[in-house]
Write a structure and sequence with these properties.
CATH class: Mainly Alpha
Number of strands: 12
Radius of gyration: 22 Å
Oligomer: single chain
CATH topology: Cytochrome p450
Shape: globular
Bound molecules: protoporphyrin IX containing FE
Strand order of the largest sheet: 1-2-8-5-3
Number of helices: 17
């Protein structure tokens, strides 16, 4: 009966309201719909759709041990990523996650920290006073260098243009694919499908080269991702199929650099807009102990830098929404929802909800520090589930620790030496594709800091 009340009430808006207007407005439309509401049913033909606006319900859904699968957005990614960790479900996901988890232990991340330091160091040497750059591009290539060296044990700089070109094609098409009947575009010949295939082929060529090179190296099962994937054997002693190796490698290559790049680009933008917060950060960066903390990639010691990154990801979560499909009928927040219901969690809306955050639209990194100046997520005082940049539950981001280390170390190292001037009237806007990017990038003039 509750299902009937939820979805047949005359006031229930159509899911079309989400699709009306530019795809880039989607995060704001979701935030407007969930404003002050815990659960918003939407009419979507034979399918039920609910938007979740309550942090407790969002966490509850994401942490359910069973009965919940990934939503339609992920299906759209499957044509590119196949059955890699992000897109796989069920037993395959559990098996692959167990296999890949050991690459992200704290010890491994500490090792990747040294890579992050040396990549940031090299970038600092390449930057000069007064140079004009787009910080989205700069952070994209920094993040790609780090993933290449840390996870693939190789230099991806020669492939950077290829990868960027492919992403420039793929990301804007993604919102079209997740619209009703968007998949039809993949079934019949048309210019969109051709462009997607070209982009997919570019990425495949990069990954194939990586796999071939790694397979030819004599140290099987080395410390890197490809070594581990190529060395694994099942109960019958068979290696992982090459297609699976390709899917995992491409997933980690894309998931591991695009999100981090976007997080860093937004952080630079916010610092340029908030000089008071920048000066507050620079007190930490100029402290004599900071140089050695950066050199050791001791990101836990960089409390203010962590706070800046956390606050920037609150306002601009690189993964702006998460979808889940209910596999069976179940209760959520006292409502009976049918199996098949698509549940949408707008991380962007949760992060800006005035019910959870004071001054939700203000960039206030201080909120993340306790009274002794130590970074503590609880210090912000938001309820559990109100801050989910990496998701939650069994599908929580496998690279979350690596991402936090990397963004903190890179920002600390570069912002210690440079600050970015962005034109006062510049508005980056949102590009809501797979990630929430600054649509117009972050064009800036770099200035060497007098210390
Ligand atoms: C600031 C950077 C990052 C953000 C904001 C981010 C965000 C997320 C989120 C929200 C999810 C969960 C999606 C869902 O539940 O549907 C996720 C999953 C995932 N992320 Fe990240 N991520 C970041 C960096 C990374 C890095 C550095 C890597 C790897 C090197 C990575 C690899 C993955 C993978 C493989 C998954 C799928 C995990 C699974 O389903 O088991 N991410 N990420």
């Amino acid at each position: 009966m509750v299902v009937v009340r939820l979805f047949r009430a005359p006031t229930v808006p159509s899911a079309r309201v989400l699709l009306r207007g530019s795809p880039d407005g989607l995060p704001d439309r979701m935030a407007a719909l969930t404003a002050g509401r815990d659960l918003v049913p939407l009419r979507a033909g034979p399918r039920d759709v609910v938007l979740i606006g309550d942090p407790g319900l969002a966490r509850d859904l994401l942490t359910r041990p069973s009965g919940v699968g990934k939503g339609r957005g992920i299906d759209a990614l499957k044509f590119l990523l196949g059955d890699g960790l992000l897109t796989a479900g069920g037993d395959l996901h559990r098996r692959q996650r167990r296999l890949i988890n050991p690459l992200f232990t704290p010890e491994k991340v500490a090792g990747y920290g040294m890579v992050a330091v040396s990549v940031a160091e090299a970038r600092a040497s390449a930057w000069t006073d007064g140079v004009r750059v787009d910080l989205l591009d700069e952070m994209g290539s920094v993040a790609l260098d780090i993933v290449g060296q840390a996870l693939f044990g190789t230099d991806l700089r020669g492939d950077a243009d290829r990868i960027a070109r492919a992403l420039d094609i793929l990301l804007p098409i993604f919102p079209t694919l997740i619209r009703p009947f968007g998949f039809a575009l993949l079934r019949v010949p048309n210019p969109v499908r051709s462009a997607l295939r070209r982009a997919g082929a570019e990425l495949d060529a990069v990954v194939e080269r990586l796999v071939e090179e790694r397979a030819a190296r004599p140290d099987p099962g080395g410390n890197d991702l490809l070594g581990a994937l190529l060395a694994v054997r099942d109960e019958e002693g068979r290696p992982m199929p090459r297609q699976q190796v390709r899917d995992e490698a491409l997933t980690l290559l894309l998931a591991g650099h695009e999100t981090t790049a976007v997080a860093l680009a937004w952080a630079w933008f916010e610092l340029s807009r908030n000089p008071e917060a920048r000066r507050w950060l620079e007190v930490e960066l100029d402290d004599p102990s900071t140089e050695s903390a950066i050199a050791r990639a001791d990101w836990h010691a960089l409390h203010r830098t962590r706070a800046v990154v956390a606050e920037s990801m609150r306002l601009h979560p690189p993964a702006h929404s998460i979808g889940r499909r209910l596999l069976v009928d179940q209760d959520l927040g006292g409502h009976r929802l049918r199996g098949g219901t698509l549940c949408l969690i707008s991380i962007y809306a949760l992060h800006r909800d005035p019910r959870s955050w004071s001054d939700p639209l203000t960039f206030a990194p201080r909120r993340w520090l306790d009274p002794t100046g130590v970074y503590d997520e609880r210090a912000a005082g938001a309820p559990r589930g109100a801050y989910l940049p990496f998701g939650a539950g069994a599908r929580i981001c496998i690279g979350a620790t690596m991402a936090q280390m990397e963004t903190t170390v890179v920002l600390a190292r570069l912002a210690r030496e440079f600050h970015a001037e962005v034109a006062e009237d510049f508005e980056p806007g949102n590009q809501a594709a797979v990630t929430l990017r600054p649509r117009r990038g972050v064009p800036a003039t770099l200035r060497t800091r007098a210390r």
